[in-house]
Specification:
The chain is an alpha/beta fold. A hairpin with a 2-residue loop joins β17 and β18. The N and C termini lie far apart (110 Å).
Length: 480
């Protein structure tokens, strides 16, 4: 017997990017043919895909860990590493993706809808891609970026138009079985329905879906009975139907008190998708009127419900009385709700270029250490992750990139002094300014730079004098 699971916690990890390759082309009579290291491949993504053939999250209950493949490392002869394959996870229609804090990340509706749950890391550049006029033969390559890893909560919220709510054994399962082709378990004891049931109802030219949830009892919001865990399956419903058992002989229960108790429990439930269940249309179904006493009770309470403005239908799932009128009335409410919804627009690609004054990073003081600073930003943190700190040339390349981005200028303006700790990502180092943007830079007239006045290069006249001295010649060119 298969189990129904509508809420799971999964741990997804995208693939890591492959490292770049630092290689030099070599062949006969050409030992130093230039850099030819290839780039590393990108890591694979973890993608959630809606599949209409999947109806439960049971697979994730037993296998909650999912990891995509890593990108391959680059190789010599300009051979790039292969990209990692994306891992596609099939989920049922109506799955909601949330963080552990309850923030909704995606609402997956419709067959084929996709959501990237974790992004793969970028592959590192090889030394062939890092070559430039100033650095013609780089002796280093960039490391691959780690893939994204996080924990997500998947909740299944059925895509239904009509939701049936009521006390246990009120006849919800019997009602959905006679109105649709659904075949839920029906028995003469409370809490027969342990999982939500979904059925498709056809009324004339209208077709809509109907869902029922396990029976509610007073105190369900405090965990009594099956609680409110399954009410997430009626969050999308256009109309809520109160199914009332008019043939019950329990003391202290009557149709009016049953509906009031259910409304009190519904008011305590807060839909995660927004909105409120209080704004949904209500319909009252007085069930089991084939019993004479139940018929008399239904006739007695019908005016009271009508006084509240609630449509009332007296039905019997045994004799099929009143079912046709109920199905057409629900179809009308569903069609009106569909017509009132805004038309769906086709998805468009939205480009949001960064602002002109957006540097892409921020510099703040470290609250835990006086005189220290923290640099936050996507690019600086990614550059640090891709740097091999055991290679001095790679570290110098990182410093050049940070200087061009303006990090040193921002640190100087924030009051950083040489030797102060600076943290970027997970790496903390002592700041030593290496550019004119650094600390205590002196300003001079335009076109002047005293640093250029210092020239240690040997001139032509000095080289000629040294050559004559080695040959033993004087200034006239004769041997001394």
């Amino acid at each position: 017997m298969s189990r129904f699971v509508d809420r799971v916690v999964i741990h997804v990890a995208a693939g890591n990017g492959g490292n770049g390759c630092a290689s030099v082309h070599r062949e006969k009579f050409k030992p130093l043919g230039g850099p030819d290291g290839g780039n590393g491949g990108n890591g694979g993504d973890v993608v959630l895909v809606v599949d209409s053939g999947v109806h439960t999250l049971l697979d994730f209950h037993f296998r909650p860990h999912a990891r995509a493949s890593n990108g391959k490392q680059g190789q010599g002869s300009n051979r790039d590493g292969a990209a990692g394959e994306a891992l596609e996870l099939r989920v049922p229609d109506g799955t909601v993706v949330l963080t552990e804090d309850g923030e909704v990340l995606a609402d997956l509706i419709g067959h084929g809808t996709r959501f990237a749950a974790a992004r793969g890391g970028r592959g590192g550049l090889g030394n062939a891609a890092l070559a430039s006029k100033a650095r013609k033969a780089p002796g280093f390559a960039l490391l691959g970026e780690p893939g994204e890893a996080r924990d997500l909560v998947l909740e299944l919220r059925s895509v239904a138009d009509v939701g049936l709510v009521g006390f246990p054994s009120a006849g919800k399962s019997s009602l959905i079985s006679v109105l649709s082709s659904a075949r839920p378990k029906i028995a003469e004891y409370p809490f027969t329905t342990l999982v939500p049931n979904l059925g498709v109802v056809t009324a004339g030219e209208s077709t809509y879906t109907m869902a029922d949830v396990p029976g509610l009892i007073p105190g369900a919001s405090q965990g009594k009975g099956l609680g409110l865990d399954f009410l997430r399956h009626i969050e999308r419903c256009s109309v809520l139907v109160h199914v009332v058992d008019c043939a019950t002989f329990e003391p202290g229960r009557d149709p009016m008190s049953d509906v009031d108790a259910l409304e009190a429990e519904l008011a305590r439930y807060t839909p995660a998708l927004g909105g409120s269940l209080a704004s949904r249309p209500r319909v009252v179904v007085l069930n089991k009127v084939d019993v004479p006493d139940a018929r008399d009770l239904a006739d007695l309470v019908e005016p009271d419900f009508a006084a509240r403005g609630l449509p009332v239908f007296k039905v019997s799932t045994a004799s099929r009385a009143g079912l046709r009128e109920l199905s057409f009335a629900l179809a009308k409410i569903v069609e009106e709700d569909r017509a009132s919804r805004p038309a769906l627009e086709s998805s468009r690609i939205v480009l949001r270029p960064p602002a002109v004054d957006d540097a892409g990073f921020t510099v703040v003081e470290d609250p835990e250490e006086p005189g220290a600073f923290i640099v936050r930003g996507e690019r600086p943190e990614r550059w640090v992750r891709q740097t091999a700190f055991d290679n001095n040339e790679a570290v110098g390349y990182l410093g050049d990139r940070l200087a061009r981005l303006g990090v040193e200028q921002a640190l100087a303006e924030a009051g950083a002094e040489p030797g102060c700790p600076v943290t970027i990502g997970d790496v903390t180092f002592d700041w030593e300014p290496s550019t004119p943007a650094g600390y205590a830079t002196q300003l001079y007239e335009r076109g002047e730079d005293p640093r250029l006045e210092r020239n240690d290069r040997v001139g032509a006249a000095d080289r000629r004098a040294a050559k004559r001295a080695r040959r033993g010649l004087d200034d006239s060119g004769e041997r001394s």
